[in-house]
Specification:
single chain; about 230 residues; mainly alpha; Rhomboid-like fold; two-stranded antiparallel sheet; 8 helices; about 60% helix
């Protein structure tokens, strides 16, 4: 039977923040005529002062018309991140989400600046979702069997292919080269985060004694019979 995992502290705060921000953006855009999405979504076709914060905020904001994509992203975050946080801690879950956000932004900027006519703004927590899903796929043994949404059995190594296929399909539906690059960056971030920060063996620390000044103390043996104290220094 399909069941959602229990919410963990970081994931609970993330889901509440994403949904609350969506409501605030909807009110600001539709009733106050404040262009919040334009201010916080990442404009990939040119660099500006706003790019400095948009690389962080693009994953937190979505246009009011994108309610259904938001709900899908929230569902995937609920499915994937709580088990990750429960096992590795809230700080690791936050680092994974941040890595997905930043890598998606930089990949989208790279493609958007090179192909401005085929690119557009990116927004939404899809980068967090894809980073979490790819990290989950890499953490499992390659031949481990999972149930996608509780109904579709597959091996863990095939989950990564499904994620990439979903991104390509999204590009075919809404051609945006920067958005496709964002997806690839987020997927790569999840894989690299696991390979480099979680599965990489710890480096051995080698200690070398620095040459110091020779000691001025010497042990001198007495010519006479040693006193009760033994050796004289």
């Amino acid at each position: 039977m399909f069941r959602l995992p229990p919410l963990t502290p970081f994931v609970r705060k993330l889901l509440i923040a994403l949904f609350a921000l969506f409501v605030v953006v909807a009110i600001a855009e539709n009733f106050l005529s404040i262009p919040v999405v334009r201010l916080l979504a990442l404009e990939t076709r040119e660099l500006s002062v706003a790019t400095a914060w948009q690389v962080f905020t693009h994953s937190l904001v979505m246009a009011p018309r994108d309610l259904f994509p938001l709900l899908i992203s929230l569902l995937f975050i609920w499915l994937i991140l709580p088990p990750f946080e429960e096992r590795y801690g809230a700080s690791r879950a936050f680092q994974l989400a941040l890595a997905g956000t930043l890598c998606a932004a930089f990949a989208a900027l790279l493609v958007g600046l090179v192909l401005p006519n085929q690119s557009g703004p990116i927004a939404g927590p899809g980068s967090i979702t894809l980073a979490a899903m790819s990290a989950y796929a890499v953490l499992l043994p390659a031949h481990a069997e999972i149930n996608f949404f509780g109904v579709l059995p597959m091996q863990a190594k095939h989950l990564l292919l499904v994620i990439i296929g979903m991104s390509v399909l999204g590009f075919l539906v809404q051609p945006n080269a920067a958005a496709l690059a964002s997806d690839v960056g987020a997927i790569g971030a999840g894989v690299a985060f696991v390979k480099w920060f979680m599965q990489r063996p710890p480096r051995r620390r080698t200690f070398s004694r620095k040459p110091g000044k020779p000691s001025k103390l010497r042990v001198v043996r007495s010519d006479e019979d040693p006193p009760k104290g033994g050796w004289v220094n």
